[in-house]
Amino acid sequence: MMEDAMSRSKCDRRRCQLWPWLVASWVLAVMVVEGGAEVTEANLEERRDERRDLLVLRDTLRSALDLHSNWTGPPCHGGRSRWHGVSCDGDGRVVGVALDGAQLTGTLPRGALRGVSRLATLSLRGNALHGALPGLDGLDRLRAVDLSSNRFSGPIPVGYATSLRSLVRLELQDNLLNGTVPSFEQRGLVVFNVSYNFLQGEVPGTRALRRFPVSAFDHNLRLCGEAVNAVCREGPPSAAGSSSDNPAVRPANDIDRAARKPMRFRLATWSIVVIALIAALVPFAAVLIFLHHKKKTREVRLGGRAGAAVTGAGDIKDKAEQGRGSGSRSTDSGKSVELQFFRADRASFDLDELFRSTAEMLGKGRLGITYRVTLDAGPVVVVKRLRNMAHVPRRDFTHTMQLLGKLRHENVVDLVACFYSKEEKLAVYEHVPGCSLFQLLHGNRGEGRTPLPWPARLSIAKGVARGLAYLDQSLPYLHRPPHGNLKSSNVLILFAAKSKQQQQVVPKLTDHGLHPLLPHHAHRLAAAKCPEFARGGGRRLSSRADVYCLGLVLLELVTGKVPVEEDGDLAEWARLALSHEWSTDIIDVEIVGDRGRHGDMLRLTEVALLCAAVEPDRRPKVQDVVMMIDVIAAGEGPELAGH
Predict the structure, then answer these.
(1) pTM of the model
(2) Which of 23, 224, 269, 335 could form a disulfide with 350 if both were Cys (CB 3.0 to 4.6 A apart)?
(3) How many CB atoms lie within 10 A of CB 518?
(4) Domains of the chain, with CATH numbers?
């Protein structure tokens, strides 16, 4: 009996040991029969490559979404993804990456996402990515690419036209791209946009590109061809005006045309050498002639028009719309025709020099795109390509710019020059080395960040109020509100060194006074946040609308919170906190440790809430706000500890 029991127990133990192997063998057999491709070594290798490239993207870029904590584990699980912005198919493979408006900064790796072989959608719209566009060769299934509203520079990769055969949608607008437009021939391409870049040259006349409207190519440098309804300037060497074309291009074009014709004779070696030398000397001689001509015209200008500022609407002639000249300062063409200057003490330049110079996009706002331009002669200026002003008459534009060009104040950015044409309107400002108040308060929050101390915040509040008071006093009554677009991103911060240990914080207001040129787009500006605008008083805004915006900026300085509509009314939240005696809860965590100044912080909060009153008549005048802040800062010295 015992032997039988022992033998049965041994059999039971063997069955228990064999049972997991039998189950595993059955599962493996089912997977091999029904979906054996899923467990092949090649498939596993592809999934590893897929995850590796996504992690490289995560580790290379910086984002407000904290991708490091979100993009962990496998990207796909059961046909779904827990990774933000990543979508998967039923086989557990990544097919989409969409990180629109994720505040991504940095440069994409050269072979970004090349291992995500099933990728069909890539959208990184509305970020701050810079550098070259990613190479997408090998992504045969890619159908939609949206890299618009970033800071990408360099040419459009030819591979976008030759390798992405399944491409249906390509959006590259609002970048810094240069070079030419490749020959896109994809039959399925239904959305295409390369506007607001620095592309030039002839747009290929392919059937795919001819399908799109001219607006898909708008606001570039010099695009021509059938697709944009513009004739490319190419004529015989004797044609009038041919000398104004680039002389370095002509010999190359002539040689290229000759190369396409059948050769009927053979040149001797010495003849080829002579022709090559002549071809090399022609552009060199043209450059010398150009420099000599430019020197003579500058001497004439300095002798007869030294120190004269360009004024008047008539100085911007119709020739600026029909085509720019060679860049001289004669009465018919040149700087006086193209750019209108407001500062006689600043270096002058022409539009061609502006376009030739190195440009870096600083940001995009409601009024347009802003670039920092380093001119060949050395000075640095800030250029804003104004938007939504296509129907503004020349007279109105010039009148507004003349008013703004006369403003001179320590806390207001100087307008240096402007340009008007039907297609393009530019405002050229002085360059303020530094960053915006928004970046100082909210950029890269977390470990390793140097917080903005309270003394610096109070000094900024004082300077912003003084700059706004100057605009209120200097601009005519009909120019109301004087600023119209006051917010922290339009306050530039200059740290002027006084000594090795101390710095003086100087805020400067920018983007001011342009709202009269935007009668149909007033809702886009910061002044539209005031309650009276929502009640239908948008066309009768007073200077109290600017005071309301000033109150929000002051609250932002104290609380460290971004006053966005999605998170509710910041002013109402602060009022509620103060009424419940949660006073210290509203103070930014970066300055709450400065307990000795909590009283000043709360007093500035009270001033901010007065400015942000719902009824305009209850808001103080901006001159009174300056006095209130001066009283709070009475105990502060003129110089602040270094930031």
Answers:
(1) 0.54
(2) 335
(3) 20
(4) 41-228 (3.80.10.10), 248-259+269-288 (no CATH), 333-430 (3.30.200.20), 435-641 (1.10.510.10)
